[in-house]
Amino acid sequence: MGPRILIIVSVLAILIAGGKWISDGMEWYTKDRKQVTELVKDELFGTTEKKVTWVDDPRFGLLPDDATITALPKSFGFVLGMGTVGIIAGMLWSRRKTRTSSNRTP
């Protein structure tokens, strides 16, 4: 029962994180802010200027935004990698479990 639960949890984690990644726009890198540009017209001189502001808008990306180890779990790549490792570990565990149970003599 243990290997099956590990595989199911790993697949669910991959599917949920994949859905979140797709709903956030399938960004390559994890982002914490979004650039918002406004055209502001100067009433006095009649010119327009670009005003750039940054708004907090976290987006789940495929890769982390920093090269540090602490930023790694905030990416879909981490969840995908750990889910794959969980699936492989569950399959090996299940295979080992069936192999040891079939080698027993009554």
From TrEMBL:
Keywords annotated in UniProt: Membrane, Transmembrane, Transmembrane helix
Tell whether Membrane is among the UniProt keywords: yes
Which spans are transmembrane here? 75-94
Highest taxon above the source species: Bacteria
User: What name has this protein been given in UniProt?
Assistant: PDGLE domain-containing protein
